[in-house]
Design brief:
Layout (H helix, E strand, L loop, with lengths): L1 H23 L20 E7 H14 L1 H8 L1 E10 L5 H17 L3 E8 L2 E9 L5 E9 L4 E11 L1 H10 L3 H12 L2
Antiparallel strand pairs: 1-2, 2-6, 3-4, 4-5, 5-6
Length: about 190
């Protein structure tokens, strides 16, 4: 009888631990971009990390004036944007990092839906399928000819037709362009 109680206790503890781990597990649309450091030349460096409570607050504020924007914000769990100025000290490392991220994204089941390589610019847009007609996440990587790299990860149950609107409202040009490309995709 004592062995049965210990076994039951072990199973209960295991299930509790599994539930706790599942609750802490990142959403399917989350992708770890890693950490970034400013360029040694002192160039541009921007880091934006918007999560749950702040996004819900923004949705509440927007509800009265812009209900469409509020609905869009309610579907988002997190937004991460990093902009890193490029100089000779980090250009090679950033390009190699983008190659590594692209390989990881593919390995982890993300679909590359946009590739642009033109005039010194390199853009990649990846999506992770969500439930029904939604996207669980989007990752955008950009190396611009203007000397900056941009990394974006948006997590949530996103409707493809709303991604361009999200880019517009959050002033994230690569996300806006990605959304437009997704809308055009057959």
């Amino acid at each position: 009888m004592k062995a049965l109680n210990l076994c039951s206790l072990a199973v209960a503890a295991g299930l509790s631990l599994a539930a706790a781990c599942a609750a802490d597990a990142p959403s399917p649309g989350y992708f770890d971009l890693g950490s970034f450091a400013p360029p040694k030349s002192g160039g541009e460096f921007v880091e934006v990390n918007l999560k749950g409570n702040l996004l819900r607050f923004a949705a509440k504020v927007a509800e009265q004036q812009e209900p469409d924007a509020a609905d869009l914000l309610k579907s988002i769990e997190s937004v991460r944007v990093n902009v890193v100025g490029l100089d000779e000290s980090n250009r090679g490392e950033i390009k190699k990092r983008i190659e590594t991220l692209a390989a990881r994204l593919q390995t982890e089941g993300w679909e590359r839906i946009v590739t642009v390589q033109k005039d010194g610019e390199d853009v990649g847009v990846y999506t992770k399928a969500g439930s029904q007609d939604s996207i669980a996440g989007i990752v955008v990587t950009v190396v611009s000819h203007e000397g900056q790299a941009v990394f974006v990860n948006v997590v949530g149950e996103l409707k493809p037709e709303k991604i361009a609107e999200l880019g517009e409202r959050l002033h994230i040009s690569p996300l806006k362009q990605a959304g437009e490309a997704i809308e055009k995709k057959p």
